[in-house]
């Protein structure tokens, strides 16, 4: 269980902005005072304190539990794909955590994706009506989605969920990275 929680924390830390992550880790893990963190992140001590506080809140909200129900995650992803296909902005907002993040690798950006979107509204706006041909899949054993072209995976949608809401979506289109993923299509 300790390994699962440690891995979950790493996943959540990866969703933080670099300055948030740095302020949080330096202060909360290594007890570095905010006066010393401020010049490292190029901010005032008060702003460094706010960065760490924001990171702490996001970690508390987004940290996935090791016993998360896979069937529930699958239903969340299925509902997200359905809402995206219909262009149902409000349904997408209901499925997204207010601080949800969308990240796309450079290959996905080259295919027309936005590189980064912060907040439920921005993520919903980016993906509304865009998952027309994405199919439900398991990505390394976790529910997600895959868009294929000519039977070949082109983009993997890796979802992170917590408490029934999506906290992060990663769009992976880099062919080398796609080949390292264990992708299993699910007939929905």
From TrEMBL:
Residues 8-59 form the RNA polymerase sigma factor 70 region 4 type domain. Keywords: Sigma factor, Transcription, Transcription regulation. It holds the Pfam family Sigma70_r4_2. SUPFAM superfamilies: NTF2-like (SSF54427), Sigma3 and sigma4 domains of RNA polymerase sigma factors (SSF88659). It comes from the Bacteria. Belongs to the sigma-70 factor family. ECF subfamily. This is Sigma factor-like helix-turn-helix DNA-binding protein. It comes from Actinomadura rugatobispora. The lineage of its organism: Bacteria, Bacillati, Actinomycetota, Actinomycetes, Streptosporangiales.
